[in-house]
């Protein structure tokens, strides 16, 4: 990938190498593949190839997704649980039909209190249903945020809200970032999530940062959070 980014080889060569990893069992390798595909997706979101890279993601990640399934297997380790969350989140965001349907089913059961999602599955399920969700989905997520007893759960929700796609809902998430519902130190996570969520989100987050620069700069007094905000 570094060679492709430097213009030495074609990105097509990178994708061919990635295809060779479909039977890879190691979490660290998949994490690296996921990160690199994320970089490519971001770049390609400004081109006609964005939908095609999503198809590629589904093709590469679906075999490992089918092997892992949704539920822990006896004797599996911590890395398998991490890998399951990574893979399901990637497939869900890319619009993998079976993953999206199962995520919606499990989310409904979670909200209704029938079957609470395990901590490992919450982020991938939340991301999936938001990415392909509507105003009702966002309202449900904000309600879960309000009801959450633990700060860890609030932060988990804050980080994924930016996955929502519709422009008016993106604005709602950005307004939420500066509300009293979000701790000042966590505002950056919400705006960063929007910036990383979609092409529309990046543009909206950049405009929001400029429009609210004075308030944000005064809030963080030039500390590390303002530099992190600019970076995301």
Automatic annotation (TrEMBL):
GO terms for biological process, alphabetical: peptide catabolic process; proteolysis
Gene Ontology MF terms: metalloaminopeptidase activity; peptide binding; zinc ion binding
Lineage: Eukaryota, Metazoa, Chordata, Craniata, Vertebrata
Domain ERAP1-like C-terminal positions: 3-231
Protein name: PSA aminopeptidase
Any Gene Ontology CC annotation: cytoplasm
InterPro entries linked to this entry: ERAP1-like_C_dom (IPR024571), Peptidase_M1_aminopeptidases (IPR050344)
The entry's keywords: Aminopeptidase, Hydrolase, Protease
Family assignment from sequence similarity: Belongs to the peptidase M1 family.
């Amino acid at each position: 990938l570094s060679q492709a980014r430097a213009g030495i080889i074609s990105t097509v060569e990178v994708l061919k190498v990635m295809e060779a990893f479909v039977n890879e069992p190691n979490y660290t390798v998949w994490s690296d593949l996921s990160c690199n595909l994320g970089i490519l997706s971001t770049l390609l979101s400004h081109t006609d190839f964005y939908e095609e890279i999503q198809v590629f993601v589904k093709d590469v990640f679906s075999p490992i997704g089918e092997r892992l399934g949704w539920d822990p297997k006896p004797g599996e380790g911590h890395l398998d649980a991490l890998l399951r969350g990574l893979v399901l989140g990637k497939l869900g965001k890319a619009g993998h039909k079976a993953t999206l349907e199962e995520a919606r089913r499990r989310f409904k059961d979670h909200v209704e209190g029938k079957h609470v999602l395990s901590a490992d599955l919450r982020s991938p399920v939340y991301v999936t249903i938001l990415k392909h969700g509507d105003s009702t989905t966002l309202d449900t997520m904000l309600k879960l945020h309000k009801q959450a007893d633990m700060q860890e759960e609030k932060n988990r929700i804050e980080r994924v809200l930016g996955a929502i796609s519709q422009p008016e809902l993106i604005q709602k998430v950005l307004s939420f970032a500066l509300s009293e519902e979000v701790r000042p130190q966590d505002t950056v996570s919400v705006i960063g999530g929007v910036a990383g969520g979609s092409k529309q989100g990046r543009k909206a987050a950049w405009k929001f940062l400029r429009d609210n620069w004075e308030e944000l700069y005064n809030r963080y007094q030039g500390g590390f959070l303002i530099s992190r905000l600019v970076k995301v």
